[in-house]
Amino acid sequence: MNKNQIKNNYKERINFLDSKFQELNSYEIENLVEHSMCTNVTIDFDSIILWAKKVKDEFNTEISEIPLDKLQSWNVSKKNISHSSGKFFEILGLRVGSDAGREISGGWDQPIVKEYNFDGGVLGLIRTYIDELPHYLVQARFEPGNYGPIQISPTLQATFSNLNQEHGGRKPHYHEFFNDYKDTSNYLFNAWLSEDGGKFYKKRNRGLVKQVPYEDTYLVDDNFKWISLYQIKRLMNEDALINPHLARLIFL
Fold first, then answer.
1. Does the reported pTM lie above 0.85?
2. Which of 12, 13, 28, 105 could join 33 in a cystine, given CB atoms 3.0 to 4.6 angstroms apart?
3. What is the pLDDT of residues 154-168, one digit of tens each?
């Protein structure tokens, strides 16, 4: 379909659902339509796959395992492993009691990651209208533990330690769009999301979806693309390409 056909099809579905489900607000109705059709007028699905492959192919950072006592800026003791700044996270030991209701009847001991102040960070996804159709700004992002090691992620994925530049580097791209995250009225979605309690100790991240006028946005580099919610869903069929944070945000 060409651009006009996509727009007409989108509006027809919106009008139909609006007449049938008056209890839903406009965003909820749009979200239903977005799950059923592609609204992207900037890039097709095959081109997204090629883009992700190009980013992966051009990525050349070396990752190697090193002994814990050789880590720079990290302190390793009998009590824990912690960053010299006191921020970011630490690895500590937990002893779990025998009444945990799990498959190990006598309880167990394990290491676990504890985030500074228990708050992981911000997972922010920018949504905008391009030619009156919804698009989302995603990032092909590297993390040292990624399978890939590049995965498609939300617009902003950053701990509060990173946002506060505890590492001494720059602030993450697009942070300015989410500085007002405490004002929930500015967001389509704004709530704490829990993380895996088997590996992280009481960790949560702030999940954010924000509508932003297209003229107020920009692209930092080719690691960022505007894609549709429908395309994100299709990309989840590609092995380990969509990261778990983005997968959660599109179903909120």
1. yes
2. 13
3. 999 998 888 888 766
